[in-house]
Specification:
CATH topology: Rossmann fold
Structural class: alpha/beta
Number of strands: 5
Strand content: 5-15%
Helix content: 55-70%
Shape: globular
Number of domains: 1
Bound molecules: 2'-deoxycytidine-5'-monophosphate
Largest sheet: 5 strands, parallel
CATH superfamily: P-loop containing nucleotide triphosphate hydrolases
Number of helices: 9
Radius of gyration: 17 Å
Strand order of the largest sheet: 2-3-1-4-5
Length: 212
């Protein structure tokens, strides 16, 4: 079974994807980490994130063993990822890795922006996870505070809005729900309620497939 979870920054899609993967015993891929790793590597080489050729070269040479570097989780890498992910050459370089990951039995749960639309249009279940920008900023602030990091609420909200705008307006593989995705708005749901709702969506889809 392939489960595609897409949605904007800080929508909680990563947590949901991880929990669904654990529940069904499937491998999980956080595809945002690939773009974060490209941005991080390019920055550490002194490159310009706006340089499409340099970014694509880094993406083609990406070592996926570096994906668990904690530096990739930070705000800086996220912002950089949003910039490099708009380069078509970067997206093309990362496509096969994601498709191969999904194609391996017994399937996978993959989260990102274009999993249901571009990477795995054949996914058995597609969930588009969303929440208001204010609620996403509140969650991100709580997460940073929990890690003892400084919190500037206005800056976080501005960051989220900028990222939404960039991710939705890019020419290649913009953030949007696939036509056959189920939208899950988690604005008023806590993590457990969101997981229950996601599980119900997967089970309903799996049931439909069994009957078909
Ligand atoms: O999900 P995230 O915050 O780790 O993603 C960081 C950036 O990477 C995001 O702003 C856009 C980009 N991205 C993408 O373009 N396509 C994906 N499938 C995943 C992430």
């Amino acid at each position: 079974m392939i489960v595609a979870i897409d949605g904007p920054a800080a929508s909680g899609k990563g947590t949901l994807a991880r929990r669904l993967a654990a529940h069904y015993g499937l491998p999980h891929l956080d595809s945002g980490l690939l773009y974060r790793a490209v941005a991080h590597r390019l920055s550490s080489l002194g490159g310009d994130l706006a340089d499409a050729d340099a970014a694509a070269t880094v993406a083609r040479a990406l070592d996926v063993a570096t994906l668990n570097d904690p530096a990739l989780r930070g705000r800086h890498a996220g912002e950089g990822a949003s910039v490099v992910s708009a380069h078509p050459g970067v997206r093309a370089a990362l496509l096969d890795f994601q498709r191969d990951f999904a194609a391996m039995p017994p399937g996978a749960v993959i989260d990102g922006r274009d999993i249901g639309t571009v990477i795995c249009p054949q996914a058995h279940v597609k969930i588009f996870v969303t929440a208001s920008a204010e609620e996403r900023a509140r969650r991100r602030a709580a997460e940073l505070a929990g890690r003892g990091e400084p919190v500037d609420r206005e800056a976080i909200l501005a960051d989220i809005r900028r990222r939404d705008e960039r991710d939705m307006s890019r020419a290649v593989a913009p953030l949007k729900a696939a036509e056959d995705a189920v939208t899950l708005d988690t604005t008023t749901l806590d993590a457990d309620a969101a997981f229950k709702a996601a599980l119900a969506i997967v089970e309903a889809r799996a049931g439909e497939r069994r009957r078909a």
